[in-house]
Amino acid sequence: MDNSSFILIEANDCSVFNNQEGHSEAIMYFIQNSAKWDFFNFSSSYEREDDSQIAYFNYSDSKWYAGRFVGEAIFEHKGKNYKIKINPRFGDLFLFRMLEEIFKIRFTDSKSLLTKHDNLQYLIKKVISFLWLNLLAKANIHGLPKHNIKLTHKGTVIKGKINIRKSIYPLYTEKKLISNYTEKALDVTVAKILSQSYLILLQNFRLVECNYPANAKDAIEQLYMQEFIKSHVTEREYHKIIYKDIYKAYKPLVDLSWDIIRRKNIGVENPNKSKDSFSFFIDMAEIWEMYLKSLLKRVLTKHGWSLKNEKLTAYKGKKFYRTLIPDIVFEKNNDVLVFDAKYKLMRFIPKDYDRTDFFQIHTYINYLHHYKNVLLGGLLFPLSSNFDISEIENNRADRLFMSDKSNTKYIVDGIDLSSIANVGTPANILFREKESDFADRIKALLNVNSGVN
Length: 453
What we know:
Elements: E1 7-12, H1 24-32, E2 39-40, E3 55-58, E4 63-66, E5 69-77, E6 80-87, H2 92-103, H3 120-139, E7 146-155, E8 161-162, H4 164-174, E9 177-186, H5 188-204, H6 214-224, H7 235-239, H8 250-262, E10 279-283, H9 284-300, E11 306-308, E12 312-314, E13 322-324, E14 328-332, E15 335-341, H10 355-369, E16 373-383, H11 391-394, E17 396-397, E18 409-416, H12 427-445
Parallel strand pairs: 1-6, 2-10, 15-16, 16-18
Antiparallel strand pairs: 3-4, 5-6, 5-10, 7-9, 8-9, 11-14, 12-13, 14-15, 17-18
């Protein structure tokens, strides 16, 4: 179908839908059938909140709003064809900038990739293909991952170390010895995952339209020489993968590949031509969290801080136990920083300070206080409007709960994106300026030198 045959209902993420008058039932259908739509994760470890909604009705103004997911769905409802499209509210370039920071690659050098296209799924699928190829090229420095396997040799020549006990009988009967040796062998699980994801990208994700970096070509050629490309990989085998230090760069690529395999029908038009055609959504909250982690890690590691993946258990062993998973935790000696990344509207008006978010971050801080010295905690948002540097003092406290007994600082802060439409400044320069400003504010609270590299 061409676009003229659809009723288009469109919004930016976390914003109101246009053209919603008279189409409320279609939007309700879209929400109620969200289990049918495909959601792509860039990290296999990301845990989506149970109450996250793809869209919702706001009773205060009686309008339908998009949630934090970006993508589009095409479906039929009551004899009419609909396309619901949700765009990144800060634009495609900021989405690419976040992915650049997370995966340490450059999107903006590829002009063809950034060419505007009516089909958002086309663009996102191409981004994923581009990302996969560049991760493969970055990882393939020492070749595909290999590990040592133990082998046994029987013959007149010794390979490795002789096995005296097992050699007694064959030496007497055949004049041969048994020896044991080790050999480097391709990690079969990793190779299967990469091979299968490559085939899926080739068939369904426009990979053929991307330029292949030399290192990526070399790895793909090695994979094609293997005989197990279509062999099945289990969830258990995936989770048992161990990366040696020289192959650690493969982990983000394998995680991405595994999600591609699990979601292999993403964005593929239904061959049975059913009423509900195709859909494809990515979670901007996941990308925002990964982006902040990467940015803060780059800034703080050089000052002695290390990023921790904390999964805390309160009331362990009790029936009412709860698992607490703060988004971002840094540790230095006995000191801790803890943040929650919130991809929500923050305009510094009262209704944007969510009660649940407030209590959640304070629960994390108070829990960690029992084991460490929490220097700083808070909520980190993309700051979309009404941000002014004078707002900073009104959005930080030098002591938790303003208590004289606490030395923990509390903040509501983030990346200032209120002026990214400034046509006088190239977007990539402006993004980095705002990142640097944010990093300087964090480091000032920790009394370390300013500047982000």
